[in-house]
Amino acid sequence: MATRKERCSKCGVTLLVPLEERTIYCPVCRGIIICKTRATPPGPVVIYRVWPSQISPQLNPPTPAHGRKRAVLCGITYQGHENSIEGSINDVSLMVNLLNKKLGFPRSSICVLTEEERDPYRIPTKQNIRASLRWLIQGCRSGDSLVFYYSGHASQVRDRDGDEIDGYDEALLPVDYQTEGRILDDEINATIVRPLPLGATLHAIIDTCFSGTFIDLQFVCRINREGYFKWDDHRIPHAAYKGTSGGCAISISACDDHQNSGDTTAFTDNATGALTYSFVRTLEKEPGLTYGRLLIAIHEKISKKQDKIGLKGSHSAQEPVLSSSQRFDIHSKTFTL
């Protein structure tokens, strides 16, 4: 892809941008700059979010192409913390294998963040997670398929901007959250949901506690054992917009906002998240299934294991949740990444 150098008029940093781009987003000062030089005739203004090479050369995006697949997989075990998690890195390994070998995601387009990575920019710190989410959405266009996966701790904090029905924001806990703080669902939504363009699809698979509305999507699907479902509207009048820029965002979460999830050896000898294991094994065994069938199958697998270890019906039980930026018939729409 042909490129040229442009200097940010606000902070002075030099950025490498495609020849045809007229407007760029500076990741240093977060300003939007109109390019001075244009190698092509004027056309529609498109914001191109530049991924700065100084952050991490390995994370530079591939050349934009129609129908591109890209994923960010984040697994945090909190090594040395009092509340460490065993299965998060195993979860990420399961997801890498599924996306790469079964669903056609190039390995070079899968960004993995765990504490075991040698690249310091792949450690799941608050700064690195933020940067990876910006990379995920950068340059996204119609036909693209994006995946955000998270396995780690989460928490709830009181909602201060009035956009949560239950009065609480959900928050991702980076490995350095004790010093750098959390990443709120408001920020995750603003980063990877709202910019999603028409024709693009984002799937989030969230294996953590309090995760029902983890990326703040507008509609939450409720389904019973017989497969009957309805969509709950989580939009609040006069609150911040949580929808996309025309694309479709769908999330599959480990549990509801008031529930807990955890890693377990109930499925295999190695600890894994109940949602992750059930999600991966279902897709491996039943290709071409609908969202309804996927959700029911995950429910069944988790319910059987919970019943076996005596958690079914207890406060520790978890019920996977489907949420979306759009309402649709979950029994007719085929799940595809």
Automatic annotation (TrEMBL):
Transmembrane segments: none annotated. This is Metacaspase-1. It comes from Forsythia ovata. Belongs to the peptidase C14B family. Gene3D superfamilies: 3.40.50.12660. Residues 68-326 form the Peptidase C14 caspase domain. InterPro entries: Metacaspase, Pept_C14_caspase. It comes from the Eukaryota. Pfam families: Peptidase_C14.
